[in-house]
Amino acid sequence: MAEGMGDVNGLADDRALLGRTSTAERVSDILRSRIAAGFFPPGTRLSEDSIGGALGVSRNTLREAFRLLTHERLLEHQLNRGVFVRMLTDADVGDIYRTRALVECAVVRGLGEPPFAVDGLADAVADGRRAARAGDWKGVSTANIDFHRELVALAGSERTDELMRSVFAELRLAFHVVDDPRRLHEPYIARNLQILEALQEGRRDDAEALLVEYLDDSRRRVVDAYGRSGAEGGAGQRGEA
User: Fold this and answer.
1) φ, ψ for residue 164 (rounded to 5)?
2) pLDDT category, 50, cuts 50, 70, 90?
3) Three-state SS annotation for 41-68
4) Which of 41, 56, 119, 213 has its CA 20 to 30 A from that of 239?
5) Does the global pTM surpass 0.85?
């Protein structure tokens, strides 16, 4: 399969998720997951005919799903060219990390008294270590995102979870185009464990300090890796799905 074409045929397997009450929201959930998993890389043009046919949905439903994902900044519409998976800029990455710092650090700061419910964090750390031993750096990336999603979930806020779901999905657009995923993700396996251990021991302030340093370092690494990949410069460079 040509680079950037994406696994369009695989979408047919997701048709059962739509059920009889097919909605644009369900279609957008499917496409969001596919984009996050890297099936549709940044710069890929999304074909209404191919995707609509694979999912068995109407053109209007698919266009509404595209509109929802455009609002989430995962897609962009280019006049007379179509809909593309977004290519992030350095400014986008910086803004994503500012949002992460505001939300994630506030969650840790507001945890209250220990013990904290960190089983989900522990599972994500274990998943990341297993993936690293297998040399599965895409799996390490997924486990890392899961760690931070579980961290945000400690706030017990559906609104915050929904906000950060979009932020993490957008961040993965940058992860999918870096040229050395191991270099990008490997250092954070141990740092996730440090934050987990601090929370397990009830050291909330230490966990927040570790998180502040972690996010600042991660932002610099992602910007550097993203720049070395030559990813900036707009969509429409990879192909069609």
Assistant:
1) -75, -25
2) very high
3) CCCEEECHHHHHHHHCCCHHHHHHHHHH
4) 56
5) no
